[in-house]
């Protein structure tokens, strides 16, 4: 960078020197260029600012004050520009020293999705019953009263309808309260098929709706119901099937207990308890603390079941003097809560990613 003759500076407008500073700073690309720029402007002996200061005595006294201020502004601008330039050069040097690929950085884990706990349980149940020779059937979530209630031995005005209150739509339609209507639809469809009818083995998973809402109940929940109809089916077949099922779903030493109960569409009916999978039926954890999952009773209720009422078979065109059958239903949300230790059913429907991550394990 050539030294500017003092005359030239003297002739120039001080403001124009700011532009010159910018232009010269823009051409600097390394440390040596920076040093040359510094010397040209701030050099103690021959720097431009030194020369400008030296001119002070030539300035008419009335203009000296303004002149001095202008020179000072220029000096501050030069210093600030040099400082910024130095920082930029340092950043560039640091970037150049860094390797393009840093193999010591931790890898980025891809964020994988996970199946919902209810989906997992549903698939597990389907897999077990498929192996037992059952097929899977689905039906509409908006049902008519006929399929949801009447054909299941709950005619209009039947008190059992109250225990399955739901949302009613116009035209005798409602949000189904269980997947039993899919069993009705399946039996009727099979009877209509050429050479159809029993034996029938089917499970019906799906969403169902009820006017229930507390820690364990949600207005929408998930069920799987099962149905087997053939000649000579007995309560023993029901118990044996459910035993095989829960031993696979929970643990091989799971015990089963049938308690007499009532459903309008089965006779006799039973509620099914299993030994608690956490305390193995003892009611205690580590021989001391009361088991929270089964409230220290050792048993958990998980299924409703029974022998299909002959009236239900007849309503579907199946001859009850020749055929018999069993049916059962279980809540998938409840099984998911037991299996994964989820205390509140709402957690299943909050869509909080953390739940999926925990359950995935
Ligand atoms: N449909 C019954 C319910 O949702 C469950 C059930 C199915 C009970 C089959 C007995 C037999 O409550």
Structure report:
It is a single chain. The chain is an alpha+beta fold and 361 residues long. The chain is built from twelve helices and twelve strands. The protein folds into two domains: 6-97; 117-360, Bira Bifunctional Protein, Domain 2 (BirA Bifunctional Protein, domain 2). It has helices at residues 6-11, 14-27, 31-42, 48-54, 61-97, 117-131, 145-148, 180-192, 235-249, 310-315, 332-340, 353-360, and strands spanning 135-136, 142-144, 168-169, 173-175, 200-209, 220-230, 256-263, 266-275, 284-285, 289-290, 299-308, 324-331. Strands 1-5-6-12-11-8-7 form a seven-stranded mixed sheet, sandwiched between helices. α2 runs parallel beside α5 (61-97), α3 runs antiparallel to α5 and α6 (117-131) crosses α11 (332-340). It binds phenylalanine (PHE).
Beta-strand share of residues: 15-25%
Sequence stretches where pLDDT stays below 50 over 5 or more residues: none
In CATH's first tier, which class of the largest domain applies? Alpha Beta
Number of strands: 12
Strand order of the largest sheet: 1-5-6-12-11-8-7
Characterize the biggest β-sheet.
7 strands, mixed
Number of helices: 12
Categorize the overall geometry.
Answer: rod-shaped
Q: What Rg do the Cα atoms give?
A: 42 Å
Structural class from helices and strands? alpha+beta
CATH superfamily grouping of the largest domain? Bira Bifunctional Protein, Domain 2
Averaged pLDDT: 91
Query: What percentage of residues falls in helices of 4 or more residues?
Result: 40-55%
* Overall structural domain count: 2
Question: Order of SSEs, N→C?
Answer: HHHHHHEEHEEHEEHEEEEEHEHH
């Amino acid at each position: 960078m050539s030294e500017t003759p003092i005359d030239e500076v003297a002739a120039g407008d001080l403001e124009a020197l700011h532009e010159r500073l910018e232009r010269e700073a823009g051409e600097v690309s390394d440390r040596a260029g920076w040093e040359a720029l510094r010397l040209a402007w701030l050099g103690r002996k021959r720097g431009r600012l030194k020369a400008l200061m030296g001119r002070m005595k030539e300035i008419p006294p009335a203009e000296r004050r303004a002149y001095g201020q202008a020179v000072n502004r220029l000096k501050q601008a030069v210093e600030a520009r040099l400082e910024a330039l130095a920082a930029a050069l340092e950043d560039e040097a640091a970037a150049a020293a860094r390797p393009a690929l840093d193999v010591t950085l931790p890898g980025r884990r891809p964020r994988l999705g996970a199946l919902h706990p209810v989906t997992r349980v549903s698939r597990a149940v389907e897999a077990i019953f498929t192996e037992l020779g059952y097929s899977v059937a689905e039906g509409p979530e908006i049902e008519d009263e006929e399929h949801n209630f009447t054909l299941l031995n709950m005619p209009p005005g039947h008190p059992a309808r109250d225990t399955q209150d739901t949302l009613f739509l116009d035209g005798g339609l409602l949000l189904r309260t269980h997947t039993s209507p899919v069993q009705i639809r399946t039996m009727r469809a099979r009877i209509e098929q050429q050479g159809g009818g029993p034996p029938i083995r089917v499970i019906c998973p799906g969403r169902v709706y009820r006017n229930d809402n507390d820690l364990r109940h949600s207005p929408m929940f998930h069920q799987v119901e099962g149905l087997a109809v053939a000649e000579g089916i007995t309560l023993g077949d029901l118990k044996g099937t459910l035993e095989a099922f829960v031993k696979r779903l929970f643990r091989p030493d799971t015990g089963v207990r049938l308690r007499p109960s009532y459903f309008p569409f089965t006779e006799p009916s039973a509620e099914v308890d299993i030994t608690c999978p956490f305390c193995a039926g003892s009611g205690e954890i580590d021989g001391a603390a009361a088991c929270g999952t089964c409230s220290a009773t050792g048993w958990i209720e998980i299924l409703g079941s029974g022998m299909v009422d002959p009236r239900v078979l007849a309503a579907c065109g199946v001859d009850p003097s020749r055929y018999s059958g069993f049916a059962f239903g279980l809540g998938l949300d409840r099984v998911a809560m037991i299996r994964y230790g989820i205390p509140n059913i709402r957690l299943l429907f909050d869509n909080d990613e953390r739940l999926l991550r925990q359950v995935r394990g």
